[in-house]
Amino acid sequence: MKLYPIEAGNFKLDGGAMFGVVPKSLWSRTNPADSNNMIDIAARCLLIENGNRLTLIDAGMGNKQSDKFFGYYFPWGDFTLENSLKKHGFHKDDITDVFLTHLHFDHCGGAVQWNEKRTGYEPTFKNANYWSNERHWNWATKPNRREKASFLTENILPMQESGQLKFVADPEACFAEANELDFGIFFADGHTEKQMIPHIDYKGKKVVFMADLLPTAGHLPLPFVMGYDTRPLLTMPEKEKFLNMAADHNYYLFLEHDAHNPIITVKHTEKGVRLNECFTIDEFFN
Fold it and tell me: What percent of the chain clears pLDDT 70, i.e. is strictly above it?
């Protein structure tokens, strides 16, 4: 098995929204804000090469939305999903599976593109199965008012209309083994219904793709919960349970949204689970 970090593009989000009720004087120590109160955010995906299968975990925002839409998120840097795949010697048509932790636009937007005539939308990865789970799919396609702006129909429905959509088994379990895939899943409900956190055995290490259960290293303290979470009081015990396991077993946490700390480990302290080590992409994968 080989793992490849896939940088799908950087953007910015409001620091207050990213840290909820936590004062800026605290969160800005780890995630400094610009003059507009915006903090750096990554869309860092992960590609798993295992035999003849290439599984992409999440797909970033994509590029099909309007300039007005992207104007809210201040894109920065030169990363794109396609160029990042190319850097590692792959083309989008090589992808066999696309695993989407959840269907918010910054995680699944790149999984769907304009068709050639720009008259409609089609899956970006024409040869891939697209993986969600039934509980989350129903939640996303019949969205509540709070999340409606994050679940965009053009990002979601083409997966089903193409016949490429599949569901993983047993979203009722806290932990489950993903059928037909190469990793297990931790299900979490605080951010959104049945977000899927994949954990991968890699060279004797447990690598966990953290999605929005732990957006950045600055979110390690339990009360540091995003304002975007639909059930923040559920996020905290989910995060506590997971971080205790991560500290106990020395998990390597792959941070999708931390622009400056791609991979971290954590440890137990008197104040709870805190940062242990940070690794660059080159340090971890080379």
Answer: 96
